[in-house]
Amino acid sequence: MKFDTPATNNPIDQLKVVGRPLDRIDGPLKTTGQAPYAYERHDAVRNQAYGFILGSAIAKGRIDAMDTAAARKAPGVLAIVTTLDMPRLEKGPMNTASLFGGPEIQHYHQAIAVVVAESFEQARDAAAAIRVEYVRQPGRFDLAAEAPKAKLVPGDSGEGSGAPPEERVGDFEGAFATAAVKLDATYTTPDESHAMMEPHATIAAWEGDKLTIWTSNQMIAWGKRDLAKTLGIPAENVRLDSPYVGGGFGGKLFLRADAVLAALGAKAARRPVKLTLTRPLVANNTTHRPATIQRIRLGAGRDGKLTAIAHESISGDLEGGQPETAVSQTKLLYAGANRLTSLRLAVLDLPEGNAMRAPGEAPGLMALEVAMDEMAESLGMDPVEFRILNDTQVDPEDSERRFSQRQLVECLRLGAERFGWSRRSATPGQRREGRWMVGMGVAAGFRNNLLMKSAARVRLDGQGVVTVETDMTDIGTGSYTIIAQTAAEMMGVELGQVRVRLGDSSFPASAGSGGQWGANNSTAGVYAACMTLREAVARKLGFNSAEAEFVDGQVRSGNRSVPLGEAAGADGMAAEDQIEYGDLAKRYQQSTFAGHFVEVGVDAATGETRVRRMLAVCAAGRILNPKSARSQVIGAMTMGVGAALMEELAVDKRHGFFVNHDLAGYEVPVHADIPHQEVIFLDEVDPISSPMKAKGVGELGLCGVGAAIANAAYNATGIRVRDYPITLDKMIARLPELA
Amino acid sequence: MESSSHLSLTRRALVAAAAATAGATTPEGADAQPASAGNSSTDAGTPAMTSVSLRVNGELRSLELDTRTTLLDALREHLQLTGSKKGCDHGQCGACTVMVDGRRVYSCLTLAVMHEGDEVTTIEGLGQPETLHPMQAAFVKHDGYQCGYCTPGQICASVAMLEEIKAGVPSHVTADLMASPQLTAEEIRERMSGNICRCGAYSNIVEAITEVAGRQA
Ligand code: FES
Ligand code: FES
Question: Per the database record, which ranges form the 2Fe-2S ferredoxin-type domain (chain B) (predicted)?
């Protein structure tokens, strides 16, 4: 099905099942521990041996020799494969660093060997017995030091955020020079780790030259393609299965070393092999959100209208890598005639930077939306009103191009009202409750809507049970449930009559889970397949498919009514189709919007910032399931608390690695850090997006949260920290004297 | 360019360079050595094995285990009770939380052989999909999870945590150590802070626990 004209009325609009806050259908499995994650598939294949991955202890250089003699003799060892056993393996288009093979080391903890043994304990012990001779080379590990050498490059997160090397509209320099009120400030954001709770894990089994891996991956079709390429085998010989994914946040978008080494280990041991990245490998062996240095210049007239907007970002990555697209939202968020954005990339020898939840916007808004707060203060304006004044309903770089829907103003107004924004003191440092200095902050949230091809197969059996099969993944996003809701709505059955099977590469290829595109596109693919199935059923019954209604488990036309199961017959029926998109995304700018409101307390003695209240008001098209969508948003808000207040991969600039590579050193928010969170979804349908009229929320919820917290901390104390995270050491010296 | 093997690095540089990875990447380092001192055939021979019997979810289970096996791996790998999760294997995340003799423990931080005769309750012992424990049902109702990977640990921890409050065990946020701790959101958040949820379901988890606690009270 090609979607190239805005949606009109369709079966989804009945909203009997779609749009309801239903419990997740996978809830009973997840809460009882019965949902099987990758490392737990004891049932999948017999005789599994254990693999253990060894990571490089240097960041840059090469391996001269590896002595595996002692390890090979260790009890229980079945096979050892080292990186010296083969030339550097090919890599897929998504990876920057190589995953295995050859003597060259590109980053710390790059995989250099896998040991396969009868037990986990034996594999781990033998891995410790491998001796490695390294030749260390000096590397570039300090972004600030390399920044002056950074080159202008284009950027595309692959997740809906991108920008050319430099983009100019009007005359930024001229307008900025003559602006009545100006801001010129630099903000820095640190390297961050996805730190999903389930480390990457894979079980691999060969049957002749056919390989099956049970793994934890967000994008099944990419994984299949890239694993085949890496191993040099035909893609049709590879099958991935990933029905449950213990979190990803972008860290499992791409093929990683676990899958490659499980496959190589299984080949060498002639046994199925299961392995996982140990927690300390996750930070340095895989990808991370790269640090940025962002300069923002804003110019406005005394009336508060922006006349000049510049946002320039520098980040680093390995040779051949990508910039963090932190300036992307600045091209679209506010009006202003004279504009400049640029992206610069420094070469670093740290582990690979890549997409993490809301790549681009998450760090970009942490700068832009603080700059807007600073500018509002310079103008003597309320920060909500300042944003509303500079709203735009068209693409600021192309006034012919409208937003399909843009309710940022409504988000901000409603949020201000519900949050009690009028109680905020415009002058910082005014509100004191015992030892707490209390303040409120606001920020706009912005994230693009991405349209991706997505396919599904829908089966109908003689009992009227509907089964959906697609390689879509559920990484905690609620895919199982919203896909079931979609199929139930389309086929006119109860939710309980629908089965959903996900994550298997033998199913039709979906959009996968990334860039908050999963919900809208994967359900639109199911919509397409259901439409095709409805037509087939109607045809079989001799009904006019345009008139046939699918209601209450029946197919009706005129005064005839046939139970769905009977229509399908004993052999059942099946249909497969996909959603593809025309040029609506070109003709209209499709984005999602939020207003984030936060209240913090800053400890007057220690400078510690604690979040007290949070509200997000989101405008993101039709909300397919308000319960699971709300969870996406509160989860993202929680990650925003981490980004603002605690998360930072500490770089060892001499040896070139992230030091705090575990969950004790890399601090993420815990229960005690998170207050009750409020989320409001504006009533919105976006017929330009898809037949579902939905967009996404999973990343929107993160976009702007960090800035709202930073702005609240400023409002509480009068101290502006532009260097994230806002830890107490950056506050304490500037706090007022204790009385 | 500097050429060196691990072993010729100074101890200081080694620690600085590799933290948990000196000479190898085993996070457990020396702790992972076979606990078989006195067994001269260790290198070429078999690991030190021992038998251990646990009562798991009410059932007596006898296992022959490598002494290095954690309680978590005994459950997940040997008994194939994979409801308990491994998020870190280091006592840093809480995904592996189970109850031993009624008290919550990180099962990755304790060796199975230390639990001879102990009563272990895992998520599987609390309820099944058709017969959910009230806490499991409340997590479903309040959407107190997303990816589900921290969830069994959160649920086991919350069930045991409510018992701790009932028993009068104070926490860091208990203002009056002489009075019984109250069932406030603040107490729940403090006491549940050993269970990380990277999906960020905290706000909903606290609502689920509060509802169950309210019903129990
Ligand atoms: S796995 Fe035991 S605390 Fe993380
Ligand atoms: S539900 Fe994913 S980590 Fe808690």
Answer: 50-126
A162-163 and A166-169 beta bridge pairing? unpaired
- Of the residues A361, A469, A576, A699, only one is catalytic, namely A699
Of the candidates A33, A135, A668, which has its C-beta nearest B198's C-beta?
A668
Closest Cα in chain A, distance from residue B86 (Å)? 7
Write down the CATH number for the domain with range A398-447+590-739: 3.30.365.10
One-letter amino acid for residue A439 of the chain: G
Contact A275, A261 (CB under 8 A): yes
Q: Does B65 touch chain A (CB under 8 A)?
A: no
Tell whether ligand 2 has an atom less than 6 A from the beta carbon of residue B155. Answer: no
Distance, in Å, from the CA atom of A247 to the CA atom of A256, rounded to the nearest integer, reads 15
- Domains belonging to chain B, first-starting first, are 49-126 (3.10.20.30), 134-216 (1.10.150.120)
Residue-wise burial string across A27-38, b where 16 or more C-beta atoms lie within 10 A, e elsewhere: bbbbbbbbbbbb
Neighbouring-strand partners of residue A238: A211
Indicate the pairing of strand A591-603 with strand A609-619: antiparallel
The CATH number of A38-138+199-284, from 3.10.20.740, 1.20.120.140, 3.30.365.10, 3.40.640.10, is: 3.30.365.10
Q: From first to last of the 217 residues of chain B, give the pLDDT tens digit.
A: 344 444 344 434 433 433 333 333 333 333 333 333 334 434 445 789 999 999 999 999 999 999 999 999 999 999 999 999 999 999 999 999 999 999 999 999 999 999 999 999 999 999 999 999 999 999 999 999 999 999 999 999 999 999 999 999 999 999 999 999 999 999 999 999 999 999 999 999 999 999 999 977 6
CB-based contact (8 Å) between B41 and chain A? Answer: no
- Chain A residues near residue B34 by CB distance under 8 angstroms: 125
List phi, psi (to 5°) of A469: -125, 125
Query: Phi-psi bin for A76: left (phi > 0), alpha (psi -120 to 50), beta?
Result: left
A699 catalytic per annotation: yes
> Residue A739: what pLDDT?
64
Domain A2-35+451-586 CATH class label: alpha beta
Six-digit token string for A388: 């509303």
Q: pTM, whole model, 2 decimals?
A: 0.94
Expressed in angstroms and rounded, the spacing between residue B119 Cα and the centre of ligand 1 is 20
For residue B55, the CA-to-ligand 2 centroid distance in Å is 28
Tell me what pLDDT residue B21 has: 38
Nearest to A572 by CA among A541, A537, A527, A526: A537
> Taking Cα atoms as reference points, which of A281, A278, A287, A266 lies closest to residue A214?
A266
Let me know: does B135 contact B195? Beta carbons within 8 Å. no
Residues 160-199 of B with CB under 8 A from A: 185, 188-190, 192-199
Closest residue in A to B140 (Cα–Cα):
A27
Query: Ligand 2 centroid vs A95 CA: distance in angstroms?
Result: 26
